[in-house]
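Board notes (copied after class):
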Amino acid sequence: MRTSCGCTTPIIETEWIKPGETGAVLARFNTGTFTGRKAAAVTVTFDKPVYSELQLNVKGYIRSDVVLNPGEVSFGEVPVGEPKSVDLTLDYAGRNDWALVGAESPLGYVDVKFDELSRQAGRVSYKITAKLAADAPLGTVHNQILLKTNDRNLTSVPIRFMAVVQPPIQVSPQAIELGTVGSQKPIAQRLVVKARNEFRVLEVTSEQAEIQFEASATPKAVHLLSLMITPKQQTVDGVVASELVIKTDLMDESIRIPLQFSQLTTDATTSVVRAD
């Protein structure tokens, strides 16, 4: 990925995008060395399934009269079902009557409020509070909130926000690929299952494989599972798509992760004929 102007730094936020999925590219203005109205072209390069390029045009106005600290709202990693608030300050230097007159969020589960902290001799300071609601969906959330001003030339101040809403229990890896399976021999796999609270892993099952593992009788926040997976014999060759179903005592709903392998119904054999 490259950019046409040193005023903009492109950042890849999603390196791998599967068919049907979406990704994100962040274009960050370099406000330490540039000010005023800027525009740049960001070229994104794709190497698979075929080489191609996509050009994105970005533009903005880098203001020196408004300073945000920190520069964005970062909620970080948030457990699902838990609200979280983040505070930042906005400092303005310029007009005596400059003011914030409103705040907007494009998402119903992200709220923003502001309070004036001080005003003196053309300088004003605000406290900005952004709140992520308990009903925020799972996954990565990124967007921007807009602070409305009484400035006729630049009527709004955008603030980027980002959060990673995590499930109660996290599993790594998030999918298991066994490759080509030619016989019913157990295949060793490791699985990390973790949560904020201590819990027990009760069972791990699959409709298309036998799963063996040693369950811990002691509740722990992190479980390192050593699985022995034996795929069940199929009637025809081909790719088998199934799931690992993980049951715990922390939540009623089971955790499901994809399990896939390619099945060979018979092992290849080689006949040797000796000529006397």
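Comment from the instructor: The mean pLDDT is 86. The radius of gyration is 27 Å.
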